[in-house]
Amino acid sequence: MKIAFIGGRNIHKLGGIETYMFNLCTKLKEMGHEPIVYCESDRNYQEIVNGFKVIHWKSPKSVYLCKIFLGLKSTLHAILMEKNVAIFHYNAWPPSLWNWIPRLCRKKSIYMGHGLEWKRTKYSAKQQKIMLFMERFAAKLNNNFVMVSDEQRTWFKSKYKKDSVTIPTAVNLPTEFTETDILEKFNLQKNGYYLYLGRLVQDKNPDYLIKAFLKIDSSDTKLVIAGANEADPQYVDYLHKLANNDTRIIFTGAVYGNDKETLLKQCKVFCIPSTIEGLAITLLEAMSYAKPVIASDIEANKEGLGDNGIWVKAEDVDDLSNAILFCEKNADKLSREANKNHQRIKDLFTWDRISNLYANYIQSI
C-alpha cells in the first residue's frame, strides 16, 4: 500500500514526529508497503532513505504558516505526481486542514495526534485559544484518528465525540555501537550524572530541574542538560544564567547519533520533569537502556513507565530535589526500576509491534 506521511521538520534532525515517521516508514517498507515522507527543509529536493522516498519542501519562515503550506503542497504533489497513494497520513492539525482534497478523490486520510499542543506553556493564552479552536476544527474535518497516547484518545472522545485508536511511539532496542568521546569532552564519569535530554522549552521544565539540582550539596554528581532551542535563544540564555556557572551543571547543546546514545547508556538517572508530553521518545529510549527515571506524574509519562517511575509533581522544585536525594541513597531501588523499564519496552514499545499495529489499522480503514 502507498502511504503519504505529511508534516514534520527535516527528517535528518529527528524530533518526535520525525522519529516516528522515520522508524515507522522503515518498518513499513520492510513489510512491503510504499511510504513517502513529506517534510520541511531549507531547500527543495528528494532522496531515498532506508528504501523509502523523502520529499523536502523549502518552508516559509513563519512558524505558524509553514506546516499549513507544507500540507497543501504535499497533498497536491501526492495526488498529481505520485500514482496510487491510498492513505494520506497527516501529523497534527496544521497539515490536516487539507485532508478534504484526497477525500474528494476517494482516498483515505488519517489525522495523527502527537500531543495536546494547546496545553503548552510556551504559548500565550491567546495562542492557546487559537490552537484549541484549530484542534476542534480539525476534529470536525477529519474522520480517521490515531493518537500516540491514551490521554489524547480520551480527550478527543470526551471533547469532540470522536473515536480513535492509540498507536504509541516506540524505540529500537539498543545494539552495539561505538561510544564517542562526549564523556571525556565534558569531564563526565560513567553512572555519574543525571540526564535531561530534549528541547529546551518551558513546558519540559529544565529550569525546575536546574533549580532542584542547585539545592543538592554534592560535588560528585552532575546534571547534564542536552538540548537546544534555536527558536527561543532567550530561554536558553535564562537556563545558563540560572545554572550560575555551577561546574556540576553541563550544557552540551543538541546531541544526535552516537553522542546521544553514549549519554543515555552511561547516565545514572534519566529526568523528564515536563508539564506536558505526548509520549516522549527520549523517555522510551532511556527505558530501553535500562535506566531509572525521575518523571513528572502526568498521564503521558505514566503511560510510558507504568508503575515504575520515581514520581514528582510537575513544576515542583522541592519534589525534584527530594527525588534526586532519594536516588543518591537507594541504589538497589534504582536497579530494580531499571530492569522493569527495559522489560516494559520489550513488551510494549518496539517498532516491530507498533508497525504491525499501524499496518493492521490502515488495512481496517
Describe, in short, the structure shown:
This protein is 44% helix and 18% strand. By secondary structure, the protein is α/β, with parallel strands linked by helices.
What does it look like?
By secondary structure, this protein is of the alpha/beta class. Helices cover 44% and strands 18% of the residues. The protein is built from 15 helices and 14 strands. The protein has helices at residues 16-30, 66-80, 93-96, 100-104, 125-141, 150-160, 182-185, 206-214, 233-243, 257-266, 281-288, 299-305, 317-329, 331-348, 351-364, and strands at residues 2-6, 34-41, 45-49, 52-58, 87-91, 108-113, 145-147, 165-166, 193-197, 222-226, 249-251, 269-272, 293-296, 310-312. An eight-stranded mixed beta sheet has the order 3-4-2-1-5-6-7-8, sandwiched between helices. Strands 11-10-9-12-13-14 form a six-stranded parallel beta sheet, with helices on both faces. Helix 1 packs across helix 15, helix 8 runs parallel beside helix 9 and helix 8 (206-214) crosses helix 13 (317-329). It is globular. The two termini are 12 Å apart. The model has no long low-confidence stretch (mean pLDDT 93).
Can you tell me the overall shape? globular
Per DSSP, the total helix count is 15
Structural class: alpha/beta
Radius of gyration: 21 Å
Mean pLDDT: 93
Give the H and E element order: EHEEEHEHHEHEHEHEHEHEHEHEHEHHH
Instruction: Tell me roughly what share of residues is in helical segments.
Output: 40-55%
**Could you tell me how far the N terminus lies from the C terminus, measured between alpha carbons in angstroms?**
12 Å
Q: In total, how many beta strands?
A: 14
